[in-house]
Amino acid sequence: MASIKELCADLHDELEAVPFNQKMFRGEQTIAERKSYLASWKPIMKFLDPMVPTPMRRWENIKNDLKASGPGHHVPVTSSYAYLHHIDSLKGKEYHAHVYLNYMGFMFGGQIMKKRYPDTASLYEFDDIVYWRDYVRKHYVHVEDEKFVQQVKKGFQMHIAMSRELGRLHNVVE
Description:
This protein is mostly helical and 174 residues long. Helices cover 66% and strands 0% of the residues. The protein starts with a helix and ends in a 5-residue tail after the last helix. The model has no long low-confidence stretch (mean pLDDT 95).
């Protein structure tokens, strides 16, 4: 059986190719872009955090990173709320796919971002990444379940929509 990473490789690559994300990966985000990015994750992580152990929670970290990014207020992009609404509509353990996608993304993709944005990177700081990676895989990954795989793919699509909207908002050319 293919791994979840293999099953979603095309969507992962599409997400990484979005110009807003490319700019972020290069460490070239403006303060306004960074604030919009963080603000857009705030409602999603506030919703997901109660579903994970306390050391994995990210909402407070995002609040701290927003504060560290300086004065000014930014609101989440509309697609952030669409993603939140989607997760909120799920039944049972269908949200596990979104725990997997988001926390693993912040754990591993975040290691690059910590270097690029050290003042606003507490979002990506985990005490023991290896432990939490294994924890997420053990408690939240159900690759044999078609609905799980569909939800991870849906999550990637929502991430792509958020990144494109952030790009349009800040005139990062597509």
